[in-house]
Design goal:
CATH architecture: Sandwich
Largest sheet: 4 strands, mixed
Radius of gyration: 18 Å
Strand order of the largest sheet: 2-1-4-6
Mean pLDDT: 88
CATH class: Mainly Beta
Distance between the termini: 50 Å
Order of helices and strands: HEEEEEEEEH
Helix content: 25-40%
Number of strands: 8
Shape: globular
Low-confidence stretches: 4-20
Oligomer: single chain
């Protein structure tokens, strides 16, 4: 009986550690229209832990997603999907990742992922973006700084 109890405790600990190693999975949808307007990512701000995976889903096929150069952590790998393709990205490097839809960036189709601590927040400079994209990234940075 004692051995059975130890085996159950060991199995529970092993399952718990595997769930931690596998990380969470979050979906970001690429939409023509969402709760925040036209040409949006939903959600546009995601907070995750290192090792978590984000599924970018092109719900409306006229979109793609890519990381913006200079707006990801220094040691992070950039990511890029083709138009209409879904993309899974596992984030391991802590920091802020800014992403966009190439054809709809000027219309504000941008978003942000915060992985762990936003250590590179002072290096994110939206001034190179145009129109609504710049305004949205500035608003998302304000949210991250305020912790909301």
């Amino acid at each position: 009986m004692r051995i059975l109890g130890l085996m159950i405790v060991f199995a529970a600990a092993w399952i718990s550690s595997m769930c931690t190693l596998l990380g969470a999975e979050i979906t970001v949808r690429e939409l023509n229209r969402g709760r925040n307007g036209f040409f949006v990512f939903d959600p546009e701000l995601v907070r995750i832990k290192p090792g978590d995976t984000v599924h970018f889903v092109a719900v409306d096929r006229g979109h793609e997603v890519h990381s913006l150069p200079g707006m990801i952590p220094a040691n992070a790998e950039p990511f890029n999907a083709n138009l209409g393709d879904d993309l899974d990205v596992t984030f391991v490097e802590p920091g802020i990742y800014v992403f966009a839809c190439r054809p709809h960036t000027p219309m504000g189709m941008v978003g942000m992922i915060v992985v762990g601590e936003p250590g590179n927040i002072d290096k994110i400079n939206p001034s190179s973006l145009s129109g609504k994209a710049k305004v949205r990234i500035e608003a998302l940075l304000t949210q991250v700084r305020s912790g909301s």
